[in-house]
Amino acid sequence: MSRAELDDAGGRLAQGFNHVAFSVGSASEVDALTTRLGRDRYPALSGPRTTGDGYYESVVPDPEGNLVEITA
């Protein structure tokens, strides 16, 4: 994956990750954890949904704004 905003002023790509993903085992667990995180002030940025490649997922931000993907 790539993102234009990772380019720094010198034109070199920054090192790092795009997101981290955790599999929780089932769609119902994705739903439950997404709901719980929303109640704890981490609302989903996307999903829960079935992606084009067949995964059931939601994406939430962590306290620092990193993307956390919850998958089944």
Write the layout of secondary structure elements.
Blueprint: E1 20-23, H1 27-39, E2 46-50, E3 56-61, E4 67-71
Parallel strand pairs: 1-4
Antiparallel strand pairs: 2-3, 3-4
Region (Disordered): 40-60
Protein name: VOC family protein
Organism: Tessaracoccus lacteus
- The helix/strand order is EHEEE
Whole-number average pLDDT? 85
What best-fitting shape do the alpha-carbon axes yield? Answer: globular
- The CATH topology: 2,3-Dihydroxybiphenyl 1,2-Dioxygenase, domain 1
Structural category: alpha+beta
The strands making up the biggest β-sheet line up spatially as: 1-4-3-2
Give the count of helical stretches. 1
Strand content: 25-35%
- Beginning-to-end CA distance, first to last residue: 21 Å
Rounded to the nearest angstrom, the radius of gyration is: 14 Å
Tell me the name of the CATH homologous superfamily: 2,3-Dihydroxybiphenyl 1,2-Dioxygenase, domain 1
What are the low-pLDDT stretches, counting only 5+ consecutive residues below 50?
none
- Tell me about the largest β-sheet: 4 strands, mixed
Which CATH class?
Answer: Alpha Beta
What is the second-level CATH architecture? Roll
Instruction: Give the tally of structural domains.
Output: 1
Domain VOC: 1-72
Pfam families: Glyoxalase
Protein name: VOC family protein
Region (Disordered): 40-60
